[in-house]
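Researcher: Let's do a round of design. I'm pasting the structure tokens now; please hold your answer until I've finished.
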């Protein structure tokens, strides 16, 4: 099993600051997927909208 690193964005869809930051996070994710270093290091960006209770529960199950 390979080690992996997840960089997490925990946000709320109603939050103005989150809405402003989300495009930056998504753009970073696109660039990282093209970058050999991040592919080799198995670094992944994941976003979770805690305004949705199902997503919040999935997050807690995976990272809790």
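Researcher: That's everything. Go ahead.
Model: Designed sequence:
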């Amino acid at each position: 099993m390979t080690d992996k690193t997840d960089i997490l964005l925990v946000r709320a869809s109603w939050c103005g600051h989150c809405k402003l930051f989300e495009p930056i996070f998504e753009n970073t994710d696109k660039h990282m997927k093209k970058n050999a270093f991040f592919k080799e290091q198995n670094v992944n960006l994941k976003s979770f909208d805690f305004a949705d209770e199902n997503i919040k529960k999935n997050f807690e199950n995976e990272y809790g």
